[in-house]
Amino acid sequence: MKKIAFITGATRGIGKQIAITLAEAGYDIAINYRKENEELKNTKQEIEQTGAKCLSLQGDVSNYDDCERIAKQIIEEYEKIDVLVNNAGIIKDTLLMRMKKEDFEDVINVNLVGTFNMTKNVIPYMMKNRRGRIINISSVVGVSGNAGQANYAASKAGIIGFTKSLAKEVGSRNILVNSIAPGFIETAMTDVLKEEIKEEIAKTIPLKRMGKAQDVANVVKFLASEESSYITGQVIHVDGGMLM
Ligand code: NAP
After folding, report:
1. Which is catalytic among the residues 64, 78, 152, 230?
2. pTM exceeding the 0.85 threshold for the entire prediction
């Protein structure tokens, strides 16, 4: 029986690359998206071209009822979930002096509460199977902090605390929970930065380049695999040495 991987926010960027990489590794895939668009169609097609099944499920991870429904839909189709990747995330960057209450709440609600919502609704099925892998996408700034990202850094630091606590709770059930802290990765999220700023940041990275979504997807594949079966509660930095 094929293993099932479910990735949130997987229409583009890192989530899309994770879905394709796990499909190539032999998993059947479920992806979550917020808005139906061309990107979603392309992603689904690329996943299916690998020979994997792809179930796509609309829903906002910050909405608990959406997450409950999505988890049930995956079980109806596949009967189990082996791997959950909490990837969906947003930014609303600005200095705290200018940050509106909604800017703070929205980012926490999608990134941190969304991770809770999806995990809470998926984990009972993993508990039943006495097997599971949960991989939460945090960020280097969840460890280091970053001016202009108090909301985002708080959400990503929260994900790390959540990951470690849950790893302690469910280790005895053979459910491994880890987090990845990407550095500066080429996606739509970082595309908003001016070319000069990107070049300046790249100079500060020991590997002298931005990361690629594939760099993150490779580590997800490892954390989902049997090769990582003695690793839990960890934060793996995929940042070209940006933070050490
Ligand atoms: P991206 O290109 O902006 O993609 C984000 C994805 O999340 C999109 O598919 C988006 O779907 C989805 N999403 C957003 N809000 C959602 C919600 N409420 N419910 C469901 N899906 C939602 O971002 P990315 O760069 O690939 O980032 C992926 C993850 O890596 C995020 O958690 C991000 O914080 C983290 N990360 C990224 C970097 C980086 O440098 N890029 C660095 C560190 C960490 P829609 O199109 O429908 O909005």
Report:
1. 152
2. yes
